[in-house]
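Researcher: Last one for today. Full complex below.
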Amino acid sequence: MQISYYLPPTSLSNEELEKEYASPSWTAAKIYRKTGIKSRRIVTNELASDLAVGAGRKLFAEYKISPSDIDFVILCTQSPDYYLPTTACIVQDKLGIPTVTGAFDYNLGCSGYIYGLATAKGFLSAGIAKNVLLITAETYTKHIHPLDRSTRTVFGDGASATLLTPEDIQSIGQFVFGTDGNGAKNLIVPSGAMAMPRTNETAEKKEDLSGNIRSLDNLYMNGPEIYAFTLRTVPGLIKTILLKNSISMDELDYVILHQANKLVLETLRDKLEIPEDKYCIDVEELGNTVSSTIPIAIKRAIDKKNSKVNAGCKILIAGFGVGYSWGGTILTL
Amino acid sequence: MTIDEKLNLIAETLDADRKNINSLTVLKTLDEWDSMGTISIISMLDRKFGKVLTADEIAELKTVQDILDMMCA
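Model: Here's the assembly. Have a good evening.
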C-alpha cells in the first residue's frame, strides 16, 4: 500500500488559542490536558481540492507514480469545494490525470477511509479499476466558529492519498460496518444544505451553556454523547473485526483507531487491554483530521524512526463518528 | 465504596473542590460541569463501574445525586 499525506502549512498552537480565549479554563496546558493536542494544522484560503492535490502530488513524487497510471479517483470529503460539480473531477483535472478515468466524491467523516478502502477493494476485485487513487481531504476548520472552544481545540485539517492496485486486494481484510442515523444530530453542520438553507437567522451567533459561541452555519459537536457512543460501539466493532478476520488481538502487530483525541483513545485502549506499544496515539501535532487521521497515522507509524510497523505487519484499523458511521478491517502491510 | 468515597471520586474526576460537591449539588452551578466534565464523568463511570451512559441518561444528569445513582457495580 502506497500512502502519502499533505498538511496545510499554517499551524495553530495551544499558546495562540490561550491568548485568544483569555480564560483561566483554557490555558495552553489545560487544552493539552483535555485533548492531548499541542497544535493543529489549519487551512487559510486552501480548499479541500487544494489539500487533495497536495496529497496526490506527494504520492506521485514519493513512489514515482505518473498521473497517467491512475484509472480511478475516489475522494472523501465533508467540505467539498462546491455542492456541484464533484470535487474529485476538479482534482482529476489539477493532478493531470487522464480524462479516461472515473472519479467521484463520497461524504463521510471519521469512518471515511475504511469505506474508501472497501470501495477500492471492490473495484479492484471486480476488475473495474487497476490503479485506484483514494484521497481523503478534510477542512473541518472552515465549518468551525473561532469562539467555539469545544471544536476549535480539537480539529485540524489534512489530506491523504493512497494508491491501491490488484496486489493490495489480499492485503485488505474483511470489513465490518455500522450506521446509526439516530446520532446524526450530535455531530452536524445544521444549515447550508437542503434541510435548512442559510439565512441571516442561521448566521446568528449564539452562546451555549459552556460559553462556546457558534451559529447554525457552524459545526456542532455534542462531545459527551459522541464520547459515550464511542465507548458503546467501538469495543464491539473491534471484537467483530477480529472474529470476521479469524485473528486474535495477540496476533495483531498494531492497532490504529480514528485519532479523535487522546482521552477517548486511552479509554478505549484500557477497555480493550491493548498494550501501549501496540497502540497508536498520534494527535499531538495534528488534532482530529477526520477521514485523514487513519491514513496519516499509518504513514507516520511506518516512517517513524526505529518503527516496528513495516512490511508484513497486521494492523487493525477502525473509524467511527459523524453519521453515526463506523467500520474497520485488518490490513497486512 | 462509601458515599464519602464516591463524592471524593466525583470531585477528583471533575477537578473540582471537594467542599463544593455534595449529593444535592446542582451540576450546572459548577464551573467544572462543561462538556469536558461530563466526558470525565462518563469515562469514570465506565472505567470504575462498567457503565456506559446512553444519550438519555447523560441528558438526565442534573445533580450530583444523579451521578451517585449511577455509581453501582
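Chain B has a mean pLDDT of 91. Chain B has one domain: 3-70.
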